[in-house]
Specification:
By secondary structure, the chain is of the alpha/beta class. It contains twelve helices and 21 strands. Strand 7, helix 5 and strand 8 form a beta-alpha-beta unit. Bound molecules: pyridoxal-5'-phosphate.
Amino acid sequence: MDLTGTMEEKNNELFIGGIGVKTLKEKYGTPLQIIDQKALKEKISCFKDNFQVDGLDCRVVYASKAFLNKYMVQLVKSLGLHIDAVSGGELYTILASGMPAERIYFHGNNKLASEIREALEAGVGTYVVDSIADYQHLSEVAAEAGQRIRLLLRVNPGIAAETHQYIQTTTEDSKFGMSMTDSRIEGLIQDMLADPQVDLAGFHCHIGSQVLKGNFFFEEAESVISFAKKMSENYGMKVQELNLGGGFGVYYAEGDQPFDYASFLSDYAKYIKTEAAKQGLSELQAISIEPGRSLINASGSTLYTVGQVKVTKAGLPFIFVDGGMSDNIRPALYQAEYEAVLANRLKDPVQATYRVGGKLCESGDVLLKAAALPEAEAGDLLLMPNTGAYTYSMSSNYNRMGRPAVVFVEDGKDRLAVKRETYADMMRNDLSYEMDE
Ligand SMILES: *Cc1c(COP(=O)(O)O)cnc(C)c1O
């Protein structure tokens, strides 16, 4: 594993943000989600500064489902990002953390009436329409509230980006969005343009996640732009915004080769502008992207304490840690791969290959299938880097495991962002069983 961000080795111990992992363990316990705040801010600035082109409002919309809490919302707000929400719960967290509602994009393939009302009440800036039924529902609820809303229509260009099948989203049978070649799509667009309740401002597209080749995004932009041009020609639609989604791939383990974000993003913004101008989309004002994992994953690590070491009759020996699929379900859900180090003995020679098992009651609760490590002992600190995205946000209380604490570290300062969940926290909604008289 390479040391990234502010990671450094001092006396054989891993330091992040100027603080040793032993200190962090002592102060906050394990499992612990550690965020390298400087690395995170630099990554956000890399996106903001490079996804830029003259004459257009270039927006970076943080895909909040990757990692969402008050501290994170306030951080991305301070750095000028927009943000998306997919549920009433995400919307509530984002608004309660002080994000201006006009910076929110509200997504969802099955937006509930209650969620739409909450969004209307707050004054959410843009709604992303997923289907005909979703549009009709949105328009109805907005009409009841007497509000006009700004919409983008989510379209699928049918690009099969090479990625894991569970996180590839624009095939023709996709759960999300509407195929550009669906015979009903032009009728829908005409209906939307005629609807006084809505302002159809443009299109949205998201081709999938963990896409490691930049060319797919250029293909996506090209097909969305030519579709937009057709709609503008055929129906006089004023295409003001194109939101081309996220999915920019990240490094998890050996073999992953993400493209260089900085040069990709500046080329991408220029390409979209040039292509849109070529196609005569003269009303275009804003272009947006929606990165999630590419913003947060690399700056997040998870720290565990090693407990038992178990040699089974066959297969690699296990080392068990004090967390597992309750704090990181991705290995079990997507066969996701990661790396690990013994963070309290960083330079010790690698002597063994282990399976890293969690402590939950599932055979699939294996965080790493093969980790080359020094001979591990109870009390060692195992750190899994590149675990910032879709870990905490997908965590659960399975086996009544409390969710980890989340701490941001920078320049020798540690700031607790989310407290560790206690046993009592997990019982807060439980009620007593009362026997009938
Ligand atoms: C999940 C999602 C994203 C972010 O995907 P990443 O792989 O985390 O960048 C962006 N837009 C939409 C609509 C999504 O569903």
